[in-house]
């Protein structure tokens, strides 16, 4: 392959996380990022190490996640086609963008959006893509709890232990529930999220919806800044990373 000046690229990927031990590279386990790095290295015939925008846990899915990598190898005209031929069926590369050399897939992100899916009736097609939750819920209380979340910025309560973040401050832009004939979907967007945060929010709100926690107690849990006050027990397969937002203009020129 032809050598050219090093170029940084962002790649937009989707994946079903069921078969992976999470997104980020870890020793001796199968991850989304390690699978992408191997495919890129195979196609470009040189070692490639990516940097991801958002880490997802084992079993969590993504409709959109981004990574960046640098290479001095000229990309094949059918780069997308060839990458998707190498990648397994549960990972797809949707687009690739040339970006400035200082653009960082994680630090340049302005925000992220997640959805958490719950279904109320047994459905074999939802088994790996939602949380089977066949219980009566007070949907009005759930919606009120979701609205309360937007009033706060300190989410220490909803961060799992042993995290290495410097701050627990997050700016929640959207927080609401959708209801349909098959179940419920929680929607949340913020400038950043803490480890386990969305599942902690969902699990604790479900306690409100089932009458096991009052709205006042929900507020007290947030204000308590103690992760033992949150319920993280909801499973990973209901969680989807659906969007990563970047500054206008950064991703205006995808390669064909």
TrEMBL record:
<dbReference type="GO" id="GO:0031119">
    <property type="term" value="P:tRNA pseudouridine synthesis"/>
</dbReference>
<feature type="binding site">
    <location>
        <position position="114"/>
    </location>
    <ligand>
        <name>substrate</name>
    </ligand>
</feature>
<dbReference type="GO" id="GO:0003723">
    <property type="term" value="F:RNA binding"/>
</dbReference>
<keyword id="KW-0819">tRNA processing</keyword>
<feature type="active site" description="Nucleophile">
    <location>
        <position position="57"/>
    </location>
</feature>
<dbReference type="Pfam" id="PF01416">
    <property type="entry name" value="PseudoU_synth_1"/>
</dbReference>
<dbReference type="InterPro" id="IPR020097">
    <property type="entry name" value="PsdUridine_synth_TruA_a/b_dom"/>
</dbReference>
<dbReference type="InterPro" id="IPR020095">
    <property type="entry name" value="PsdUridine_synth_TruA_C"/>
</dbReference>
<keyword id="KW-0413">Isomerase</keyword>
<protein>
    <recommendedName>
        <fullName>tRNA pseudouridine synthase A</fullName>
        <ecNumber>5.4.99.12</ecNumber>
    </recommendedName>
</protein>
<comment type="similarity">
    <text>Belongs to the tRNA pseudouridine synthase TruA family.</text>
</comment>
<feature type="domain" description="Pseudouridine synthase I TruA alpha/beta">
    <location>
        <begin position="154"/>
        <end position="247"/>
    </location>
</feature>
<comment type="function">
    <text>Formation of pseudouridine at positions 38, 39 and 40 in the anticodon stem and loop of transfer RNAs.</text>
</comment>
<dbReference type="InterPro" id="IPR020094">
    <property type="entry name" value="TruA/RsuA/RluB/E/F_N"/>
</dbReference>
<dbReference type="InterPro" id="IPR020103">
    <property type="entry name" value="PsdUridine_synth_cat_dom_sf"/>
</dbReference>
<dbReference type="GO" id="GO:0160147">
    <property type="term" value="F:tRNA pseudouridine(38-40) synthase activity"/>
</dbReference>
<dbReference type="InterPro" id="IPR001406">
    <property type="entry name" value="PsdUridine_synth_TruA"/>
</dbReference>
<comment type="subunit">
    <text>Homodimer.</text>
</comment>
């Amino acid at each position: 392959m032809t050598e050219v000046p090093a170029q940084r690229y962002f790649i937009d990927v989707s994946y079903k996380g069921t078969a992976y031990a999470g997104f980020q590279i870890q020793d001796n386990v199968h991850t989304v990022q390690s699978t992408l790095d191997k495919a890129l290295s195979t196609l470009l015939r040189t070692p490639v190490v990516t940097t991801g925008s958002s880490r997802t846990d084992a079993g969590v899915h993504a409709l959109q996640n981004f990574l960046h990598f640098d290479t001095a190898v000229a990309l094949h005209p059918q780069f997308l086609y060839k990458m998707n031929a190498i990648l397994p069926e549960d990972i797809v590369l949707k687009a690739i963008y040339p970006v400035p050399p200082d653009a960082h897939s994680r630090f340049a992100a302005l925000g992220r959006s997640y959805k958490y899916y719950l279904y109320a009736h047994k459905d074999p097609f939802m088994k790996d893509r939602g949380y089977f939750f066949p219980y009566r819920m007070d949907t009005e209380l759930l919606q009120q709890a979701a609205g309360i979340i937007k009033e706060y910025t300190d989410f220490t309560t909803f961060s799992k232990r042993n995290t290495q973040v410097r701050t627990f401050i997050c700016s929640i832009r959207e927080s609401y529930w959708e209801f349909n004939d098959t179940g419920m979907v929680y929607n949340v967007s913020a400038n950043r999220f803490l480890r386990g945060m969305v599942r902690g929010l969902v699990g604790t709100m479900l306690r409100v919806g089932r009458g096991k926690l009052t709205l006042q107690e929900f507020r007290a849990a947030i204000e308590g800044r103690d992760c033992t006050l949150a319920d993280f027990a909801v499973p990973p397969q209901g969680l989807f990373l659906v969007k990563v937002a970047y500054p206008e203009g950064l991703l205006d020129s995808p390669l064909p």
